Prior knowledge:
Layout: H1 2-23, H2 30-50, H3 54-74, H4 78-98, H5 104-125, H6 130-140, H7 147-170, H8 174-195, H9 199-238, H10 244-261, H11 266-283, H12 287-303, H13 313-366, H14 368-380, H15 383-393, H16 412-426, H17 433-436, H18 438-467, H19 477-481
Helix pairs in contact: 1-2, 1-3, 2-3, 3-4, 3-5, 4-5, 6-7, 7-8, 7-9, 8-9, 9-10, 9-11, 10-11, 11-12, 11-13, 12-13, 13-18, 14-15, 14-18, 16-18
Amino acid sequence: MASRQSQSLSVQWREKGNEFYRKAGDDVSPTLQVNRLQQAINHYDRAIYLAELPEEKSSAHKNMAMANWKMAKATDLPKNVMFYFKGALKHFKEAKKQGADRDNTWQDSLVVSAASCWSDIHDRVDSWNFEERVRELEQLVPLSIDDFTMAYEYYGIAELYFHQSLTFLADRDYQRCLRFLANCNFAMNEAMRYGGLDNSLARKCALLRDNIHVTHCVAESIQARIRGEELLEYIIRDEEILNIDMVWEVVDCFSKAAMLTRDRDLELEAMALSDMGKVYDQVLKMRERAKTCLMKVLELANTMVPRNFTGDEWYEFARSTVERYQQLSVHLLQSWYEFARSTVERYQKEQVESEKEKAEEEALKLIKNEVDVIKKKHGDLGKLEFLKFLYTTHPPKNPEHKLGEVSPTPEQSKLKRLYQKAVIHYHPDKIQVDEHGSKWKVLTEEITKLLNGHYEFFKGCSEKLNVSSDVDCDRPEEEEKD
């Protein structure tokens, strides 16, 4: 009997609250509306306290939620607004819990009302600054009526964090960007956890996860590249002695920056590779590694056509340096070619000379007896007699080359001219081996040596006569030596 009476009291208090709720329409003044809604909330609170059956409790909580929702829209103070919105969500959630056994129509109506309440919440906080907006939403999400709603609200928060991280990235505030991306990851994971098997939400979360990963890589890449640039500037400006360990740390920074953006942001990857190529080229003097990096830069730039990077520092450095390497390669190839050509020619010439010397040695062996006879005559005969002997026993091959008529006692100058002419007649450079044979060429070489000896004697005498009149060049050479 007591139980029945408590149920009746709960219903009575709820119905009285409904009267105040109906009288708090938009047609009354704001102050009167707020007062009547507060009266309704007080009656619903009493009805909740007196309710014993789940049906009574669920109805009382639903009505309390609706009153708080309407109160949140009626008040102007932000602090009060969020207080009543929180109350509305809390009672929607409790109404669903207590009314789990009620019919689908009632439950669907409850969920639709809760969703409309969330829509009003977003309309109210959308104009707030980011920090206030996210802080309030994060406090409200756990009060969602079901996991589905909670999942989508967490996804909305994840999107807010992601877009704000992009703002920080554009402002070059990489630390805050990375921190907000971490918060974004947490919210997205919560959305996936509560979303369950919702395929639509799963696709959205997968796309957002990819965007988070790319943005995270980009932020870390830019941060690493800036760190490398700052460190390189310090090394060049403040270090008196080049610190190789620090230089390699710079290379690691640029390498990390390029790796993080590979296949994600081609321009940032190209910029990092250009910086790394500059270190290899200008600091470490490792031309091949520099060329590899800078060729990759130009390749990436070509894949981004129709974008034009002319004038961008990273692109212009890569282009000009690669052109310099190409010109240097052409110069080196030409130098190598000239060296190879001259070396081959020298080897060929040396081989020809070697073969020539061997042929002359062989020919000299064959004419050794003739040479010995000529040398003996050279020593035994006078200068004129030696010439007559040569032209008689070994006449020049050219029939026009003859000694001619000579006085038995020619003057010194005449004898000098005869020897000069003989040197020309027997000179080996005028001998054609193909026509006269190698033996004759070798023989003329030996004869020319002997003729040059006599000719130099006459030449020396002429110089002495110009200095002193006491010199007698008409005497035989042997006497002059004594």
